[in-house]
Design a protein that fits this description.
This protein is of the alpha+beta class. The protein has 3 helices and 12 strands. Strands 3, 4, 5, 6, 7, 8, 9, 10, 11 and 12 form a 10-stranded antiparallel sheet that branches. A two-stranded antiparallel sheet has the order 1-2. It is elongated, with a radius of gyration of 41 Å.
Length: about 290
């Protein structure tokens, strides 16, 4: 019985693919490939198609035709809603903080955020206090008895003209908002360096320290001759109600507190004389 030899096929065996004219039997186009080359060609064609499709979807607007993919308007609305949600969370946090401070004030406690910041420029470790027990007891008694006496420490009991008074500038800076009684803007806004200290315009007694939603941390000082100075939008207060202050003494730190009448770190300074507001620029050089 005759055996037929069958040649084993190999990956490198060449095959010809040809396109012929059915009428003239002329070869119009032909290509010779091995199985190995055919596999590589198919792989690169598929890789090119997948890469081109992914690039078109990633870098063109064709991705908007994918079911469920948001369009430009929807993405803009999502971004705006995220910004509004962040603002709402911040507003709720500020309101919660306000109600916590209000609850502390009603219960007789000190608001947590009104703690005076420690002056980091001073070396408190090198300060030594040498006082006797008798001196400490006398000092405590005097401060307790005259704490809320606004007449204590006044220069004179008789009326003095405003022209003869020298107002110490609470801060040095640029006037960003002028006094305008018609618009109910009863003071002057001064822009200065952040964290600058606020000084007392005249010697007197602190009659109010607190926080309001509109003007943030506020401190008011009663001076002689029925004069009251007001300092608003502070970041922190260095004095408490009943404290005696000297002219030019630091009483607060410039800030941006308050939720309505503020647009950046500055001091809102007011001068009241016998219950009427005065233009601070007429008496103080900032």
């Amino acid at each position: 019985m005759a055996k037929t030899d069958k040649k084993k096929t190999s990956w490198r065996d060449k095959f010809k693919f040809a396109v012929t004219n059915d009428t003239t039997f002329e070869e119009v186009w032909r290509i010779r490939l091995t199985r190995y080359n055919s596999f590589l060609l198919i792989f690169f064609v598929i890789f090119f198609i997948v890469g081109a499709t992914a690039s078109l979807i990633a870098f063109t607007n064709l991705r908007e035709f994918i079911p469920g993919y948001p369009d430009v308007t929807m993405r803009r609305n999502i971004l705006l809603n995220a910004i509004r949600l962040d603002s709402l969370e911040r507003e709720l946090a500020l309101r919660d903080h306000y109600f916590e401070n209000l609850s502390s004030i009603i219960s007789g406690d000190r608001p947590a955020s009104s703690m005076a910041l420690r002056d980091t420029t001073m070396n408190y470790n090198s300060i030594s206090f040498r006082t006797s027990p008798e001196d400490s007891a006398l000092r405590a008694q005097i401060e307790t008895e005259g704490r809320y006496d606004i007449s204590q420490g006044q220069v004179a009991v008789y009326e003095t003209s405003l022209a003869s008074l020298h107002f110490f500038p609470p801060v040095r800076g640029i006037v960003s908002g002028k006094f305008d009684q018609s618009k109910k803007h009863y003071g002057t806004d001064i822009v200065t360096s952040p964290r600058a200290q606020v000084d007392a315009a005249l010697a007197g007694t602190v009659i109010f320290t607190g926080w309001t939603r509109e003007t943030g941390y506020v401190i008011e000082v009663q001076h002689s001759n029925n004069i009251v100075s007001v300092y608003k939008h502070n970041s922190s207060l260095l004095k408490e109600t009943g404290d005696l202050v000297r002219t030019g003494e630091a009483i607060a730190i410039v800030g941006d507190s308050g939720e309505i009448y503020t647009s950046g770190p500055h001091l809102h300074f007011e001068i009241w004389y016998k219950g009427s507001p005065l233009d601070p620029e007429k008496y103080v050089i900032f």
